[in-house]
Amino acid sequence: MKKTFFNFQSINGRWACTMIFVLASIVAWGQESGEKTTEELVNLGFENVRWTENDNERIYTIENNVYKAQGVGIAKAVDAIQTYGLPKDKVCKLIVTHLDIPQVALTYRPTTENDTTTVTDRLGWQTSYEVEDSWKEVKKEKKKNSSRFKVDIVVYPQLSYKNLIITQIYQTLFTLNPAIEISLWAGSKLTGQFIVPIYNDGYGTFYDKVHPGFITLSQKFRLPFNIQGKATMGYFNADRYGIDLMLFRPFKDERFSLDGRIGATGIGYWNGFRLHYDRDLSLTWSVGANFYWPRYNTQFSLKGEQYILQEKGIKFEMIRHFRYASVGFYAMKAQYANSNGGFRFQILLPPYKYKRLKNKYIPRVNTSYNMGIAYNAGNEQMYYRQYRSESDENIMNNNRFNPYFIKSEISNY
Known about the structure:
Blueprint: H1 8-43, E1 47-53, E2 57-63, H2 70-84, E3 91-98, E4 101-108, E5 126-128, H3 132-138, E6 151-162, E7 171-182, E8 188-201, E9 211-223, E10 227-235, E11 240-250, E12 256-271, E13 274-277, E14 282-293, E15 298-306, E16 312-321, E17 325-334, E18 340-348, E19 364-367, E20 370-376, H4 403-412
């Protein structure tokens, strides 16, 4: 009688080989998928592109210097990831940077009912300022299409007007202010600007001459507990030079946040290319709380402030943000001054997409992200004076990495 024996060692060996083959195939597919996705993101023009993967999540980073509407650019990146690079059965995270400093993260978490490799919309992505653990892991990877040392020539149009003379409806000033902007290292931006008068009716002879505008070096940074900040030194607007520090801290419920600002500045004004300045510096500061209403993309803020003439006051703002515009109202009351208020708005300027040339180190020329006007209803000329520390500082740009705004943009684009 013939006996049959099972060779368990042989069977176990075959299972081990099969499992190794399957795992190797999964790793190879993941590697190919991640590399293909980053190549597509670079082809779309995104900068500072990275990716990495561990047992729990796959992480991508991008910097959107292509689309002026930040939400539109991030939606394009999400589409590329969903097409080429979503992992199976693990979390996918997209970290959006600015000057190679992380700003906001988008996270897709798979469920048992939904295979992440077949996602066709952007509704499942959650947004948050929280990036710390994932950023620590992915920032070690080599960047593709680095933004460092790339030069932008940005033309800022500026319209000013005032109604102070009874015989004239408005005195008007229109200038074009080209600026050279370059990032020298992570978080840094060097800006040099010229103010070129186009039309001057009533703003004085100083504005008839070409003269420097912003000349600044800024450094963005991120601290633990999601604290974001920026330090700037140089020549600002409003005839001020000095140093400035800004901090922003969202709460766990990211609809609520705190921000603060402090600066030491002195008087400085240009007569052509000759600078007249005072060595004495004065302290200005601002500290406030904010609430963001996601349903209407509207931010409310209440701040205590000290202005250039050292008067202390309070300011309330309400700003609603749209894809191509931001519109706001404000009211203020300070020592020695009557109550004041008004409105302000910013509009996005075309062209809305501006990809760099194939030789990525040739300077790119474009209009500024947006242009705005503030209306001073009380015609206050002496009090409530403040400065901006950089040429692109405004109510629209300050909101472009708000996670609730980005969520609404990628969902509706």
